[in-house]
Amino acid sequence: MVLGVVVVMSDEVFDKYYQPFWGFDHLSVTDQGKEVQILIDATSGAGFKSKQEYCSGIFRMQIKISEKLTAGIVTSFYLISSNKNEPKHDEIDFEFIGTKGKFQTNVFVNDPGHREELVNLWFNPSAAFHTYEINWNPQQILFKVDNKTVRTFIYPPNYISRPLHVEATVWNGSWAGPVDWSKAPFTSSYRGFYIQGTPCNK
Questions:
Q1: d(Cα 144, Cα 134) in Å, to the nearest integer?
Q2: Exposed/middle/buried for 137, CB within 10 Å: 0-12, 13-18, 19+?
Q3: Which is nearest to 1 in space by CA: 87, 82, 84, 106?
Q4: Residues 6+ apart with CB under 8 A from 138
Q5: Where in the sequence numbering do the catalytic residues fall?
């Protein structure tokens, strides 16, 4: 792969570096392009992704999840390789499991993952925006919440070598529990789209 120069993108207008990729009618861009709201109901969720792939970097977003309590809704921010539908792929995850505050990280290194770690948040993630950061480099991955490191992942013999792009999605998974659709729609908000990354090409 070919490495590019480090690019810094801080609090930029959403569509300059990101684009929706599913659930288009369930995603809206507000505040002059600086905030994205994703709505999920029984028909669909939605998601957006970066326009570039990266080989390392710092990736940060501010997120506020839905205040309506339910299981089953997954609100996420992650880096993932383009072969994401294959069992062996690369991925670095932040995930809210339901909207009751259950929060986890996960890492896939050319495998199916299974490295989940729960994080006990010290705040209500639906009451205000909080900052979630992935610091990915060839030695380790740092997961940070409001600038506090909540997990350090040191690579096993293999390390993430594929280009990754950023995705943020809100969807429902049966493994996350039953959704109380009587409370739908559920809306999560994203802003503060910060990337200090090294673009790369295969």
A1: 6
A2: middle
A3: 82
A4: 56, 159
A5: 91, 95
Secondary structure, 3-state, the chain: CEECCCEEECCCCHHHHEEEEECHHHEEEECCCCEEEEEECCCCCEEEEECCCEEEEEEEEEEECCCCCCCCEEEEEEEECCCCCCCCEEEEEEEEECCCCCEEEEEEEEECCCCCEECCCCCCCCCCCEEEEEEECCCEEEEEECCEEEEEEECCCCCCCCCEEEEEEEEECHHHCCCCHHHCCEEEEEEEEEEEEEEEEC
Which positions ≥6 away from 56 have C-beta within 8 Å?
136, 137, 138, 197, 198
Give the whole-angstrom CA distance, residue 120 versus residue 163.
Answer: 30
pLDDT tens digit sequence for 169-198: 999 989 999 999 999 999 999 999 999 999
Average pLDDT over residues 76-103: 90
Tokens 């792939």 -> residue: 53
Burial class, 123, CB count within 10 angstroms (exposed 0-12 / middle 13-18 / buried 19+): exposed
Which residues contact residue 186 at a Cβ distance below 8 angstroms, ignoring those fewer than 6 apart?
39, 40, 41, 66, 68, 70, 73, 99, 170
Using DSSP bridges, classify how beta strands 186-201 and 2-3 pair: parallel, antiparallel or unpaired: antiparallel
- What pTM value is reported for the model? 0.91
